């Protein structure tokens, strides 16, 4: 599936190699350090790194850090940490667009000298009006970067300044003579072009902001559409692979390369990842963080790599997901259930099994007199080399509240008065009664066990349909458990009702905190990131936090139920 979908990119690359346009393959992953990476970025750098690997080339990690107002070294470190955790190595190929500022400025001067760029005095509002975008807004028409309905723009009154005047003004812009926003450097292309991006785009703007790497050395900063192709050229990038929204930027990408007369990097676009119940935009994720809708960038409900890692995802599962959805040329929506399917497939093979009881109810075995008995439990039935562990069976156990019903509903095969169940790895027990407090709440369930049924066997061929898990009340440790659901209650969060925003689609029940749960004693030794299958409950991962009482905290990664298998393992369109 992935190989077939990726053919349009690999075919382009093969054609370039065969025709001699390039004699090697060099890609790059160019994040802007203004936020943490999310799973959509995983698709991007999976393509960047895998294409380089497929053609025995190289892939750079370059930070496109030309917007000092929003960028920070902490984002750089987070991005490096996440890409590394995902299993990708950029070796000595770590670059920064900010290292190219002098190079970019020299190319801007070169374009000015050719008469193809000029210094403009229009304000942002005036520039929009001259370009034609302001007229669209007044007519309440959705703004787009390309529209045949948009009439031709008008030339700026400063467009015909002489080369000498433009060079002088540009040098004075760099020297800091003018206030922020007073002047810009614009490319001289075509103010009547149907692609609004080619209507004399801005190349440099004045911003007195301290850059996290260059400090206050510069007060003019290059715009993305100017620096990106020229940074690619600087690094000898053969194939600049980017998401589909940059398709309309490609003519501008090629224009700057041609005008600067630099290495002819080629831009190729692919469809970005869209996933149900999820927002994949750093802008909107930042809003969630800043407005405290989540606990931070690494909140386990977030689609960030850090959030997925904290929740218990593995890099192998994410890579499997990205490789199987493939690389398409048209946008589509992927069901988040498919991501969860890939995760279960991976966790099932690697996760040790343990017992945990989230909502405990006391089970008293009235005829038990043996003290504590050791029972043997399998650590992972998918991995024979994982071995076994010891469980302690005692008179008083913890079971789940849902595993007992005073009055059972139809087809209920767990404990109720007179019914028998298997205790996992233990014995068959039969319910003899229960205790209630003054408020009518059930406080304990009473039963008897059959000593001939160790291991859950029924030698007399009794039909026992239910098997439940348990913990020794004397041997279990307290744990805190966090149950997560989708952060957004609807499949397409950005499609908000009139007068609403995507924030109105937040799921108010996306987190359930269970403070008084129990787990096997071995969980006390777990370190953050350790993953387990809590039998019958799902997959859980140790969180860096501890509870207020000092108990270890476990995040629910994903449940055992595989909804994806029921819909044929196909991505939603």
Total individual domains: 3
How many individual helices? 15
Q: C-alpha Rg, in Å?
A: 31 Å
If classified by CATH, what would the architecture of the largest domain be?
A: 3-Layer(aba) Sandwich
Strand content: 15-25%
Q: Which blocks of ≥5 consecutive residues have pLDDT under 50?
A: 1-6, 134-148, 568-573
The percent range for helix content is 25-40%
General description of the model:
- The protein contains 15 helices and 25 strands.
- The protein has 573 residues and is of the alpha/beta class.
- It has three domains: 2-270, HUPs (Rossmann fold, 3-Layer(aba) Sandwich), CATH 3.40.50.620; 282-352 and 481-566, Ribosomal Protein L25, Chain P, CATH 2.40.240.10; 356-469, Beta Barrel (Ribosomal Protein L25, Chain P).
- Helix 3 crosses helix 13, helix 9 (224-234) packs across helix 10 and helix 13 (315-325) crosses helix 14.
- The strands form six sheets. The protein has a seven-stranded mixed beta sheet, with helices on one face. The chain has a seven-stranded mixed beta sheet with strand order 19-16-17-18-12-15-20, with no helix packed on it.
- The chain has helices at residues 2-5, 7-18, 39-54, 73-85, 101-113, 124-131, 133-138, 163-175, 224-234, 250-260, 282-290, 305-311, 315-325, 336-350, 563-566; strands at 26-29, 58-63, 94-96, 117-120, 184-187, 202-206, 220-222, 239-243, 266-270, 353-354, 356-357, 360-365, 373-378, 388-393, 396-400, 420-423, 428-436, 442-449, 467-468, 471-472, 477-484, 511-519, 531-534, 538-546, 552-558.
